[in-house]
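Methanogenesis marker protein 5 (Methanococcoides methylutens MM1), 151 aa
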Amino acid sequence: MAKVIIYPTNSLILSDMVERFGHEPLAMMEKIREKITTVGVDSPPLNITPEGPKHGLKYAAVEVPAGVRGRMSIIGPLIDLAEAAIIVGDASISFGCMGCARTNELTKFLIREKDIPVLEIQYPHTEEEGKSFVYNIAEFLKALPEGGDEE
């Protein structure tokens, strides 16, 4: 089973596809759940601690806005764990809006710089493109080591 980071990192569709093919999706939803259910952290939206932006310094310089560092304190460790990646470009907001252009660019840059298999694919806008989109992702996931739907 490969650990696959998805972009947008909060896409339920990509997360589900990765899981269906026997891999572990590295997505923001699980990390956010951990943050908001951890004892000692105030309930949402007060779910940030002073440590979050400090951890983000590993991925973004001190000069960048604290929001970028805060997001990178969650996304950066996912990138570190990744053994493969799927990046969807030009995605609809309903596919998984990331909300911060600078974090988006930094996330994609760090994924591309890592020496792992990366599938970069454009978001589909027609039914034919949608079929091709799903097929290409399925083939990528099947080709990953120790995983895929081998039936």
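DSSP finds seven helices and four strands in the chain. The two ends are 15 Å apart (CA to CA). ok done for today
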